[in-house]
Specification:
168 residues, alpha+beta, 60s Ribosomal Protein L30, Chain: A, five-stranded mixed sheet, two-stranded antiparallel ribbon, 7 strands, 27% helix
Length: 168
Amino acid sequence: MRIGHGYDLHRLEPRPPHGNGRAFVLGGIRIESATGPIAHSDGDVLLHAVTDAILGALALPDIGQLFPDNDPQHDGADSSIFLRDAIRRMREAGWDIANIDCTVICEQPKIGSYKSEIATNIARLIGCPVTLVNLKGKTHERVDAIGEGRAIEVHVVALLKSRNSIGV
């Protein structure tokens, strides 16, 4: 077994024409919101954190090293590309997902009504049963940038299991 922790945070700003926030995408699902992330890719903090958790469990370079935010090729990129690359690396190394546990921290938008759709999409992208993906939504009780609605934060823990008895 191997465990990895993924973390991401993005500043949120009003969407155009009042600001530079991108469309609000979480776990590959577009969510209606007056604000959106400031990011080089599509700004999907959840997929970024899931990707980093898997890469961390494999002791590989992180998402920023593999997909630098100064590379024009990744400007506006769909974050599922990054996750699919991590999954490919995981499978090639002989590992599978045992479970993924995700915590999304933001004041707005509320994610409760999207949780099932997001978890289902993450499971689809990973190629695992949805029963292996847990998603929790929390607030920051109006404290600091997250609590004031100026940022979104995500923590993810990924547990991997070896496909062979020796491990890698």
